[in-house]
Amino acid sequence: MSHIFPRHTKASPPLATRGEGPYIYDQSGKQYLDGSGGAAVSCLGHSDPDVTAALKDQADRIAFAHTGFFTSEPAERLADRLIAHAPEGIDRVYLVSGGSEAVEAALKLARQYFLETGQPQRTRFIARRQSYHGNTLGALATGGNAWRREPFAPLMIETSHISPCYEYRGRQDSETPEAYGLRVADELETELQRVGPETVIAFVAEPVVGATAGAVPAVPGYFKRIRDICDRHGILLILDEVMCGMGRTGTLFACEQDGIAPDIVTIAKGLGAGYQPVGAMLCSARIYDAIRDGSGFFQHGHTYMGHPLACAAADVVVGKLTDGGLTARSAQMGEVLDSALKDRFGQHPHIGDIRGRGLFRGLEIVADRTTKDPFDPSRAIHKALKAAAFEAGLICYPMGGTIDGQRGDHVLLAPPFIITEDQIGELVDKLDTAFGKVFA
Questions:
Q1: How does DSSP assign 43-81, residue by residue?
Q2: Residue 94: beta bridge partners?
Q3: Cα–Cα distance, 411 to 432 (Å, whole number)
Q4: Element (H, E) at 397
Q5: pTM of the predicted structure, to 2 decimals
Q6: Helix crossing, 49-61 with 308-321: angle to 10°?
Q7: Whole-number CA gyration radius for the chain
Q8: Under a CB-based contact definition with an 8 Å cutoff, are residues 139 and 103 in contact?
Q9: How far is CA 328 from the centre of its chain?
Q10: What is the pLDDT of residues 323-349, one digit of tens each?
Q11: In contact, 412 and 431? CB cutoff 8 Å
Q12: What is the pLDDT of residue 384?
């Protein structure tokens, strides 16, 4: 009998006993290829000796010092390293313990920025349907995941949602990708005019949509138009890179590939590679200076923010992603994975789209490739695929509700950056086995 409150009370997961490279082993000795890095977390794989050495060394020095009284050497090093590689204008790092905390900090900082600058009428956010920004109430409210939002909707802050940039489902045959991107970006302008641009704090978006839609990148020009609209109306652009950032898409920050810089960006998951709970909210000098020159106090905080052990681990991780070349390897091996997926499943009768960037790839599942019709949600294809892949020794990240929160299924892949070509072959073989069982 377990006293753990599990994610699902009717499931009994095996006990993970050790990890090695891209593999996890359970108590029976069964080996699982971690094809999704958990939830796009384990970018270095498991049991990296340099990260564990840094943790041990820091634990011998000091494990915890509350940021109400102290800063720490690991926190200062990590912040310096992040800013050295951050998008243009980003100047400050607010260290927290995960992605939802990072998004909550971003939302509250954005609101306080406008209070400090004399614009208290700005009270609302705009985001996109089929997005996911975390499970705390503020993050959940800005997210557009209908299934996750529904039970808690009465408790949420007011947020408008516009269309996602979802080329496979949204682009018309007569449109170029660029024309499609401009059309859906201009929905932001339309929504601003509907609610009054002077009432809006920020637009929130994932550069590459993760869990809810399955590694959906924006088309060229989309985010440049979004940036222009935000600037024209004086609203902030918050980019959520909790899942798609930290090298996952082949650049350290995903927005580098869209040629823009946000006002605030959130990171987590790959920041700590799973070795400690850690996340961060990074903001521009302009926003920081408004707080510094105003009240001087950001009215927010968490007990474990800036935790020395978490920062020591994350500093080594980011060093490996940058100076160690693993972000470049993510881009390189991402092309290998993309080719392998398209070779095996490009003409599969139930795979409608294969997409993504770097080692962040999604496969959208359809009942009919020609019409793009999804399977009936009652079949719960994504749940069957997760179980079949796990039985085959593959950890992947299937989800349902891909199209509108109710219909559609996809599989998200986000393996460690250390994965080899042979292991990519193993991943594709095991995924093929799962597809064969589910679609038989």
A1: TT-B--HHHHHHHHHHHHH-S---TTT---HHHHHHHHH
A2: 281
A3: 12
A4: strand 397-400
A5: 0.97
A6: 150
A7: 21
A8: yes
A9: 19
A10: 999 999 999 999 999 999 999 999 999
A11: no
A12: 98
